[in-house]
């Protein structure tokens, strides 16, 4: 892997040997990368040159997104919905989006015959808007890819990932796996938890493994969910039931790694029995309803934070910058907060006559996003550690605490506002305003 180093650059607008220079190059064509490209294109009314590097090979983006075999669904906060609406994405996914009407939280052992709800609250803002929506990942990525393909300012390079990065005074140069080199005034890593660009930039991360595996599947059930999301805190980790459109739910399930391997090796009938044991039989008979070929998926659970979010002419967004435990379902929303903040600082810099890779603009982005990401990671890590055990005294304290919270409507409103992503210094796009 090429480490970051000084690159000789020509006049503004051209790199070595007079090559054309893109305004922004984004490595990664998932949620954060595609949304950032769309947000920047719209902020500059298309008067910006953008390159998106997609390591996957496909005939066209829309077809690739539509056929993703992905069982996962994401909780979209009200703030993220504002961003997607402003970019024209929400109408394309609205039919697949399920508003969450209520949150119910239980804390019990797996063998408990009865799982009383210890904390519950309506999941609506004072305006009546749902604080969160559940959207299948496949629907969202397909909508983003269709939108990107319709923006002339965005060029997608497919079939080769990033191998190296060099930055100079005027441009940054990215080397692809196929040997091609591309110049840009700003390079953004949106290439996930194992970011090749982050490594190439020499940015270290701090983090740890939880010894847990995340399991995701989609189930159909006989009884309606009425938009209620349920979080069962079990000793091995949280078991979330997220409502989808129709009588379907996405299960997001954290288990100790050895037990997860056993569960994933079960046949469908026995796997459903294990899910129903955790469901508590609440919604009647269950059946697997995930995409063909991917009825269940899994991944190791860990937390990581980049030691820096920026370098010269370089920035991190999304999972390249931070990875958090899925206990609160906020990973995607944190990435979209990065997108909204970076878009705003780049646009504000342009209004002052500065270019996208301006050092002060990038420093502002890091100040804006790094503390929030650190606080979120610490909070979700603490919640997972607090609830992923079966110690009697700790369980009693948890029950007492949730019982008290259940009697505090003001605290519940704060929880809803936080989940909606509308607390603190909120970028314009997350408020539904154009940059």
State the main characteristics:
alpha+beta; disordered N terminus; single chain; 435 residues; nine-stranded mixed β-sheet
Form type: globular
Amount of helix: 25-40%
Mean pLDDT: 88
The main sheet comes to: 9 strands, mixed
Number of H- or I-type helical stretches: 12
Q: Please report which band the strand proportion falls in: under 5%, 5-15%, 15-25%, 25-35%, 35-45% or over 45%.
A: 25-35%
Report, as a whole number of angstroms, the end-to-end distance.
Answer: 36 Å
Low confidence ranges:
1-15, 59-67
Number of DSSP E strands: 20
Q: What would you call the structural class?
A: alpha+beta
- Based on CA atoms alone, the radius of gyration comes out at 22 Å
Account of the protein in words:
The chain is built from 12 helices and 20 strands. With 435 residues, it is α+β, with helices and mostly antiparallel strands. The strands form 3 sheets. Strands 5, 6, 12, 13, 14, 15, 16, 17 and 20 form a 9-stranded mixed β-sheet that branches. Strands 1, 2, 8, 9, 10, 11, 18 and 19 form an 8-stranded mixed β-sheet that branches. A hairpin with a 3-residue loop joins strand 14 and strand 15. The model is unreliable at 1-15 and 59-67 (pLDDT under 50).
Give the topology.
Elements: E1 21-27, H1 31-43, E2 50-54, H2 61-66, E3 73-77, H3 78-86, H4 90-93, E4 98-99, E5 102-107, E6 119-122, E7 132-136, H5 137-149, E8 154-158, E9 162-167, E10 172-176, E11 181-189, H6 196-200, E12 205-221, E13 228-234, E14 237-244, E15 248-256, H7 257-264, H8 268-279, E16 286-288, E17 296-306, E18 310-311, E19 314-316, E20 322-323, H9 331-351, H10 359-387, H11 392-405, H12 409-420
Parallel strand pairs: 1-2, 1-11, 2-8, 5-13, 11-19
Antiparallel strand pairs: 3-7, 4-7, 5-6, 9-10, 10-11, 12-15, 12-16, 12-17, 13-14, 14-15, 17-20, 18-19
Helix pairs in contact: 1-5, 1-9, 9-10
